[in-house]
């Protein structure tokens, strides 16, 4: 089989190999279709060449004659080359002609053995340099040691040090004696693999660039390094410090260094020529490499079988040693049979600890455990010794741990040792491997203190093996560099890596996509109401999420960003300073602030100055007494005040011409002894936010002042509504090539009536990426990164061409591709484990169509973002035929957010819920309008005659004014009280007809109606008891009749005597969402108390008592405010601990309530009683129920049969 065959080429010397070419055997059917390449300097310790750090195989030939050449992405420097066949023509055999391309490689090499050193002292420079460059290559078997140390005149030093196989860039402040160096960067991993690694360190005036192999990390330079002059470079042994030999041996470098250059000077070449600037100690100018043969266990079928003892007696004990490295937490390391009474020894990893078990007949006779976190990819030494009745297991000697036991039976090897796995001959319990297979590397195997020659194993002269890679360690660190973005924590096993995205604010296989929306506008259109939200202004981009307050109580959605003092604060001048400087720190970072301001349509900030004999800006011709700093970074000096224009050196009153002294342009500049103020809004985004205030005229006798800088407020999201309409299949927009080589996310909204069309396409030479509506119910995300086309599909159960907005989110990374459509389950396609992962595109990006102008999309695309960057569709559409900017019509998609009879009205960018016909308020008409009543509180609502309404000039909503011609009644309300009896509602007419809703003395609900003044009132009572229990109950009554007035808990002069007595008791409790036909009298009383039809007596307090979340309905209303940091700024302190203007906008959460509901309809006399989703229909006790067919009650079943008479019912 192929795993035992290879073709090895000795190039005679180290060569820079740039390409390989293969061809089949001449005139035959023999050729390779795929193969592996390996390189080595010595003929041992082979290293597999990988493309893109992932793909290990090379596609070969498809016939015997054509030549297939591959240029290596990174040239390989080696003397030996091996080609391993993977697959060949099934109709032939392995046949190969091979050619390599390259050029000679020359280098200067030096070996260091712990005590070796090379010290270079540069020539004194007459001036400081702003750039230094160090380059070198190294190889080592040790995972720690100082590779290079550069000391400066100022006592500072930079050092490159290996630690656990990673290369660290450290800054020491007191030369080499510093015990706490500052870590500047960390790069690389597994650098102790005895292969050459390239290192470059470049110091520029403002930053450092550290490169290890192909990866570079840029470090902002510390201020103390900006002018450093290096006077000494040390390689190898670290200088002795107070004769601390242990420190020297631990930090000294063991290995080879090649082509060591400093600012173009080849230090090893200088050392060879005995240059006086170089001092050398115990250095050899060649690379003496110790022979260390490793073996790689690649999968479940891998094992290595070795003879169990090298002595004649197998009962004398056992001594086995080896080293291993792995990323797996579990796996079998070693197993062997016991000689005499049977039993099996298992040495394995479990939870990254080393465990030993001895089994016999399926039972554990002995268990030991040692070590921890052994899956860190480092080499760990294991020793298993059994001698004189004592069994010892040791990991990493003094640095690790050990476990001991004294078994009652001898522990020795019966015949064979099995490493990593075992040949399974039968189903005997002791023959099965109860543990997972080991995947990792082993080396330095010893049995009875004799080293095992693994080359002999490879040559079939010793032991046996299966599925092994001998003379190489194939471990790969998939977390270096980490593919986890945005601070996600990378972990790995032997075959895959995993990103832990918790607490990062991002999700996906590589923590690429943000879990938060990009603006308050987006949260609103998800149906959210006011509150604190994290927004991520650039989605998957580098800017982190920020916490803001979203105020959604107005038609515009406001984003509010706080700073450290938004209160009105009295100025207290410093005796030693002529000016008072006040800084404002914001809850968001600089890049977050600027991005949020940039994407908003409008931003503003309140700026106020209260003064008494404290001038503000002086005249436009004079120097200002005070100014402020605003804009990006530290801000720029601004000499205008709130409400004025930039650069005007005026206040709002100067612009409006109404200052207290018309000779000045600010009220405070009048310099009067009375308090006055200059206030206004700063609305120029280029000058926002306010960073600092500088106040000047504050130290004169009698001068007093106070200031207030409000929070930053912005509304509108330019990205969220950026849209284009494609009206032809041949129309499209084109943009520059999309660059998403390793990770790409694409999100947008679309609406269409067409059954199919391509949303987006970008092509490369072979690679491509495309998202399309393939049918009216299916969206496909397809791409090719070199492994062949892959597709991810999402199927919808409802048509997608319904002219409603649908959201598409696609992501592709090195692990997987995902596609989300609206709220449907995400579809996932895993990437090949060993394949290409770079997406390489080179054509233009087409939106709404394709390069072939076929299968184009007809409809709207909105808010298109690629890797967090919004494409300006509207701007490009303005200059593109067949495409129009913008896309109206949002109520079809978002109208369902308007609740409780709220009407959706279109806006150019978005929609608005009109609550004028609803008893509710709020951005979605979702907030109950509730009030707490005392015994003396009442609200009277009087209908206006038609001529009065027509001549009324107010523009109040129809929920306040309505005509007096009533053809029927539709009454609903909610109440909460502990009072009985109590009158809830009374409706009367001029003709002494009335309708009353009350709680009688038995705590039951009672409806009285009198439709004929010549007849007695009729009474309907429910069987529901205990309605005066302090819980929330909802009542709905529907009837057809005439009515003139509506009254809530207020008796009239013509009221029925019994009801008048009941009304005189007053009502104590809560009423909410009172609705009578098209009007909402309680809402009118609370929101428009001065309107004509409303009159209020007694204290009426708006409350959240109508919500089930209100624990105490009679308690005073709690007002929630934004969390802020009130207090002093600088030396000022708050004058008024005022509630901010937006604090009242934060309300409690309206919860679903448990209620008793009584419904009246014009069919039968019954109540519908619902509690906790349990329906109970109960007959209503009534008086003369058959006498008035105009007023009867109905069950829910009956109501469903009258769609025209009962178009909608409102249950809370």
Automatic annotation (TrEMBL):
**Which SMART domains has this protein been placed in?**
EGF, LamG
**Xref: InterPro entries:** ConA-like_dom_sf, EGF, FA58C, Fibrinogen-like_C, Fibrinogen_a/b/g_C_dom, Galactose-bd-like_sf, Laminin_G, Neurexin-related_CASP
Residue limits of the Fibrinogen C-terminal domain?
A: 511-563
* Keywords of this entry: Disulfide bond, EGF-like domain, Membrane, Repeat, Signal, Transmembrane, Transmembrane helix
Q: Which Cys residues form disulphide pairs? A: 860-887
Q: Which residues belong to any copy of the Laminin G domain?
A: 108-287, 293-473, 722-887, 930-1105
Q: Which GO terms describe its cellular component?
A: membrane
Residue ranges annotated for the F5/8 type C domain, each copy included: 1-103
Annotated membrane-spanning segments are 1144-1169
What is the membrane topology listed in the Swiss-Prot or TrEMBL record? Single-pass type I membrane protein
Q: Where is the composition biased (Polar residues)?
A: 1191-1204
Ranges for region Disordered:
1186-1212
Cross-referenced Gene3D superfamilies, in alphabetical order?
A: 2.60.120.1000, 2.60.120.200, Galactose-binding domain-like, Laminin
- Classify the source by domain of life: Eukaryota
Location relative to the cell: Membrane
Q: Which residues form the EGF-like domain?
A: 475-512, 888-926
A Pfam family reported for this protein in Swiss-Prot or TrEMBL: F5_F8_type_C
Similarity comment text for this entry:
Belongs to the neurexin family.
* The protein, known as: Contactin associated protein like 3
